[in-house]
């Protein structure tokens, strides 16, 4: 790892703009202390303060001030061949992420900046330690921000899940469910699985299979009708999903349930 340049609390006017079509030739980390305008694949995105972005080497960099002044901390750095980011497993790349109060991260950049421009004997070792500390704390902030967002969605997600199990016949798709919670498709799927330990698609299927098992074992309703009551548009689709999960056909399950009930009565 090598820091190539670094700055703390830099302020620019309303005309500030960075346009690097091929990137800066290295990695770039920005801590955004004011709103800004970023461009990704030609699309304009207005970002909030208390956000960060980590540009990979080679990623185009185009961003500018948003109306008023622009303020950020930043550092350019290079990684050795085969070297990975410390604690970088949950750090998104090439997109702006809001993580809340940046003061603790900014303090690390300030200390790293001091060491970088100093003539101290151990400045290189100190910079590397601050670099690792920065990414450790950034990883923790990302995790905490994600947990906060998940907590805010838990109530709404629980209501949705209850509805899935109470109304298995409703025709559902991921896009509509995500839109109902004002979430992107990918983030909705991620949060749902993180909260409930199962993907939303598999949970919908589970709700239908559980309801069909109840109807098969407690009623004489036809299997075709049960398939429709559980949200299936065709008997074949129902048969395939039921057998895949129960290792028997609906008819076999019904017979087994009746045989078990008869044994219990005779016993």
Any chance you could write out the topology, listing elements then pairs?
Blueprint: E1 2-12, E2 17-20, E3 27-32, E4 36-40, E5 43-47, E6 51-55, E7 61-65, E8 70-78, E9 97-98, H1 103-116, H2 123-166, H3 174-180, H4 185-196, H5 200-218, H6 223-229, H7 235-246, H8 250-266
Antiparallel strand pairs: 1-8, 2-7, 3-6, 3-8, 4-5, 4-7, 6-9
Give a brief description.
With 267 residues, this protein is α+β, with helices and mostly antiparallel strands. The chain has helices at 103-116, 123-166, 174-180, 185-196, 200-218, 223-229, 235-246, 250-266, and strands spanning 2-12, 17-20, 27-32, 36-40, 43-47, 51-55, 61-65, 70-78, 97-98.
Describe this structure in words.
There is one protein chain. With 267 residues, this protein is an alpha+beta fold. The model has no long low-confidence stretch (mean pLDDT 90). Strands 1-8-3-6-9 form a 5-stranded antiparallel sheet. Strand 4 and strand 5 form a beta hairpin. It has 8 helices and 9 strands. It has 2 domains: 145 residues, Jelly Rolls, CATH 2.60.120.280; 65 residues, Arc Repressor Mutant, subunit A.
Helix tally equals 8
Judged by helices, strands and strand pairing, the structural class is alpha+beta
Largest sheet: 5 strands, antiparallel
The CATH homologous superfamily of the largest domain = Regulatory protein AraC
- What's the CATH architecture of the largest domain? Sandwich
Low confidence ranges: none
Q: Compute the CA-based radius of gyration.
A: 27 Å
How many β-strands, per DSSP?
9
Average of the residue pLDDT scores: 90
- Provide the domain count: 2
CATH topology of the largest domain: Jelly Rolls
Adjacency order of strands in the biggest sheet: 1-8-3-6-9
Shape: elongated
Query: What portion of residues is helical?
Result: 40-55%
String of helices and strands: EEEEEEEEEHHHHHHHH
Termini Cα gap: 74 Å
Q: Estimate what percentage of residues fall within beta strands.
A: 15-25%
CATH class of the largest domain: Mainly Beta
């Amino acid at each position: 790892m090598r820091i190539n340049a670094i700055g703390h609390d830099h302020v620019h006017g309303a005309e500030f703009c960075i346009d690097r079509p091929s990137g800066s030739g290295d990695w770039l980390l920005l801590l955004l202390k004011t709103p800004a305008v970023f461009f990704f694949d030609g699309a304009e995105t207005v970002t909030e303060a208390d956000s960060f972005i980590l540009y990979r080497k080679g990623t185009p960099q185009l961003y500018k001030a948003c109306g008023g002044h622009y303020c950020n901390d930043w550092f350019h750095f290079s990684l050795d061949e085969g070297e990975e980011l410390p604690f970088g497993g949950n750090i998104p790349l090439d997109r702006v992420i809001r993580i809340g109060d940046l003061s603790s991260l900014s303090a690390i950049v300030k200390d790293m900046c001091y060491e970088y421009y100093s003539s101290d004997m151990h400045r290189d070792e100190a910079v590397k330690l601050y670099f690792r500390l920065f990414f450790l704390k950034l990883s923790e902030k990302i995790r905490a921000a994600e947990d906060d967002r998940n907590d805010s969605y838990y109530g709404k997600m629980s209501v949705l899940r209850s509805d899935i199990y109470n109304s298995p016949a409703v025709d559902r798709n991921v896009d509509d469910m995500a839109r109902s919670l004002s979430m992107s498709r990918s983030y909705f799927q991620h949060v749902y699985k993180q909260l409930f330990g199962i993907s939303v698609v598999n949970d919908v299927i589970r709700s239908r299979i559980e309801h069909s098992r109840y109807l098969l074992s407690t009623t004489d309703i036809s299997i075709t009708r049960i398939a429709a009551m559980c949200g299936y548009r065709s008997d074949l689709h129902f048969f395939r999903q039921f057998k895949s999960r129960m290792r028997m056909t609906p008819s076999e399950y019904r017979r087994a349930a009746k045989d078990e009930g008869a044994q219990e009565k005779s016993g």
